[in-house]
From TrEMBL:
This is OmpA family protein. GO terms for cellular component: cell outer membrane. Pfam families: OmpA (PF00691). It comes from Caenispirillum bisanense. InterPro entries: Bact_OuterMem_StrucFunc, OMP_bac, OmpA-like, OmpA-like_sf. Keywords: Cell outer membrane, Membrane. It is found in: Cell outer membrane. Residues 155-271 form the OmpA-like domain.
Amino acid sequence: MTVKPILFAAAAVALLGACTTWDLEKTRAMAPAGDTFTQALKTAYLERAAFEKAEQDWGDVAYFNMQARTAAAGQVPPVGELASRGLSAPALAAGRAALLERLATAAPSNTPEACAQAQAWFEHWMEQEEEGHQPDHIAEAKGQYDAWLAKCQPPVMAAEPADFIIYFPFDSATLTATAKAEIARAAEAYKTRSGAITLTAHTDTAGDKMYNQRLSERRADAVRKALVDMGVPSKVIAASAYGENMTAVATGDGVEKTENRRVTITVGAGS
């Protein structure tokens, strides 16, 4: 343990008073204020203060306790500057930049404990680097910072629904090699998207309307079966068949049209 500058401890005392500077229990008893992130910061900084108290490093007990009190009051305490501890190591500078970048996102709201621990452990890492004579403590602090920062993440935005169009030969529900490849792309896309898969099946206008309705149903069934064979759960697939209604390309009755003989697979269509 190094001896911290007397002015540092004196400033802490001046800010909080000698009775509260090192009184962790008084900080712990403060009424909750702010949000889950500030309260998680309070806990994280109190843990660092308790560690320093066991080390009898009273200057850093005061510092971490002040950070905890700021958080307990509902404010996010600023991350300490490297210069305040006489540090300039590139690894610390990069770590601080990465932390500030993450804290500027929605990560603190999404993963408050992880972000709070990352912030407190970063400052502990700084403190250990300042002391500079306990490599195991430095390694632990950096390791904890890295681990918590990896968990400090903003919410993952759901991918937009994706459409895959499967075309069929005339008067057929048989899947061509091209169709199977497109279905495989849809099955792969399902792995990265939440929600359901919808199938909308159609025919062209050639032939009898009732026959075309049944043909569109067969086409939907063929695509569903292929998706299931590729690992997509049957329960997430919903199919609708429209026969020769809702053509992609408007035509008169009795017209063969490749673009209208289709099943559209929509992946990520909703919860």
